[in-house]
Amino acid sequence: MTNSTKALLQATARGMVAVMRFSLYVLLLLVGRILLPVANLAIVVGLVVFLFCAFLRPDLQTPMWAGGGLAAAATATSIFYDAALRLVAPEGTVVVRDV
C-alpha cells in the first residue's frame, strides 16, 4: 500500500467519523425535544410525591422513596443527556440549554 493510498484511507475514515458524530448530534438534539420536558415533568412529580409523603404522610414510606427515586433518576437522565450532547457536538459549538 502506498503512502498516498494510506493518506486517502485516513482522510476518508476521519470524514466518516465526523459525519457519524454530526448525525448523532442532530439525533440527540431531536430526541432532547421530547426527553427533556418528560424528564423535567418526572422531576417535578417525583419531588411533589416525595415532599408530600415526607411531611404530610410519613407512614407512606414506599411511595415517598419511589418519588425520590423518580426525581433522582430523571435528574441523572437529564445530566447524562447534556453530557452526551456536549461530547458529540461539532468543534466550536457551544451548547446552551434554555432556562
Tell me the layout of helices and strands.
Elements lengths: L2 H53 L5 H28 L11
- Spatial extent as radius of gyration: 22 Å
The portion of residues assigned to helices is: over 70%
| Straight-line N-to-C gap | 54 Å
Largest sheet: none
Q: Count the E strands.
A: 0
Nearest-integer average pLDDT: 92
Q: What's the total helix number?
A: 2
Order of helices and strands: HH
Strand content: under 5%
User: Which secondary-structure class do the elements indicate?
Assistant: mainly alpha
State the low-pLDDT regions, or none: none
Which tags fit this structure?
mainly alpha, 99 residues
Put the structure in a nutshell:
The protein is mostly helical.
Please provide a written account of the structure:
The chain has a domain at 22-88. 82% of the residues lie in helices and 0% in strands. By secondary structure, the chain is mainly α. The chain has helices at 3-55, 61-88. It starts with a helix and ends in an 11-residue tail after the last helix.
